Amino acid sequence: MKEVIIYVQQNKTFFYLPVVLLLALLLNHIRTYKLRNTVRKTLKDNNILNEDTSIYSMTNSSVFVLNAKHSKKERYQEALQIITEIMKEKYYLKRIFNIAIIKKFPGLKKNQKGIFLQSTENGKIEKYKLPKNSNGLAILAKSGSGKSILANSLILQLNITDYLFVSPKGNEDNELGKYPNEAESEILEIIEKANRGEYKNKNTKYIFLDETITLSEIFSKETIRKIATSFSICRSQNLKWILMSQKINKNSGIDFSLINQKIINTPDAKNFEDSLGVKITTPLNSLKLGEFLFYDEEEKILINKI
User: Fold this and answer.
1) What is the DSSP string of 248-276?
2) 84 φ, ψ (degrees, to nearest 5)
3) pTM over 0.90
4) Average pLDDT over every residue of 81-91
5) How many angstroms separate the CA atoms of 20 and 79, rounded?
6) Domain 114-305 of CATH type 2.60.420.10
C-alpha cells in the first residue's frame, strides 16, 4: 500500500486583503484630512472664513457645508471657485437660508454613451442637441483636450451625413477631410447655395473648419470675408459651421462671437472673454480629458463619452 502525502498550502490572500484595504482607507483619510485643512486655510486667507462664516461640516471631499450668516452671494461663489481649484474637481453651489452646500458634480453612469451637458447650477445632466436656429459651434480647445474626437463624435450623435471637413492635415482626423487648397472653391459654392436658399428644404449642410485660425492664413481674404459674413446671413438657411481652433485671434477675420454656441478648453480663453461674448466662471483646470466649458445662454460643462 502506497503512502499518500497531502500538502495543504495556506492561502495568504485572506490575510493580506484586509490589511491592503485598511491601508487604502487610511491613506484616503489622510489625503482628505490634508485637503480639508488646505481648503480651510485658503478660505481663511481670502477672508471668506471669519467669526460669522465657518465650515462646520466636511465629512468627505465631495461635500463642503458652510455656515455664513452675513456673507454676500459673491463670497459663496469665491468659496466655490477656491474649492474647485484646490480639489481639481467640478463642484456646484446650493444655498439654503444661511447655509451654503458645495457639492461635487455627479458623474455619468458607466453605461452612458454620448455627448452630454451638465448644469453648473445643480449638476443636472442632459444629452446635447444642436438647436435648429443655431448657426453652429466654435470649439476652442488646446491640443490634447479631445477637440478632434469631439468633432467626430458630433457627426455620430447629430447624425450628420452632408458635411465638408477642411483641415490643414487633410484626412488625418476625419476620413473625408480635405486640404484647404482642395476645398476653398467648394466652401464658396456652398455659401452661394445657402444664400439662394437651396438647403432650406433639405438636410442641414455642415462645414467643419479644423484649425480655423491657420486656415484663415491660407484662404484668400475674399473667402474669409464671405465665411465671416455667412455666420449672420445663413442662420435660417440650413447651413451650420463647426469651427475648431487651438488659438483665438481677433485679427484673423473670423469673429467667433458670431457663432451661437462656444465650447472652450484653452488656457488663454479668459483673455478673450469680451471678443467671445462669454464670462468664464468655472476654473479650466478642473476639466478632464473630453470635458469642455459650453456657452449658449448659460455656462455648462460638455462631456464627450462616445
Assistant:
1) --TTSS--GGGSSEEEEE-GGGGGGHHHH
2) -60, -45
3) no
4) 81
5) 35
6) no
